[in-house]
Design goal:
There is one protein chain. It contains five helices and no strands. Helices cover about 70% and strands about 0% of the residues. It is elongated, with a radius of gyration of 16 Å.
Length: about 120
């Protein structure tokens, strides 16, 4: 089923990842897929959480690889930048950070509006 609007990436995640627009685009694409091709029998809001968690886990994995490469290079500036990115990705995926349910009201409101149709 197609909907007139697409689900929003939660504002808190957009704010946290503003330096990584490609990550925000990935999250948006994953949320769009949930709405465009949902699994039957599972609420779309739950599927959206799974999609966000999977993408954020992938971002952590990428950040870890970048940190390892930076450590091999030995460049302190590159290492510091990579450590900060890894920290941010962990924070974004944390239940106390970007994935805190109370900070995703825009996404919940979206799913409540379409699931009541």
């Amino acid at each position: 089923m197609r909907h007139a609007s697409l689900p929003p990436v939660p504002q808190k995640l957009r704010d946290m990842l503003k330096e990584y627009p490609e990550h925000i685009q990935t999250l948006q694409a994953d949320l769009n897929r949930v709405v465009q091709k949902p699994f039957k029998g599972t609420p779309m809001s739950e599927q959206a959480i799974w999609a966000l968690e999977a993408a954020l886990d992938a971002f952590i994995g990428e950040a870890r690889k970048e940190l390892k490469a930076a450590e091999v290079s030995g460049d302190p500036v590159t290492i510091a930048r990579a450590k900060e990115k890894e920290r941010l990705m962990f924070q974004a995926s944390s239940r106390n950070g970007g994935m805190r349910l109370g900070l995703m009201t825009d996404l919940w409101d979206y799913f409540e509006s379409i699931e009541s149709i």
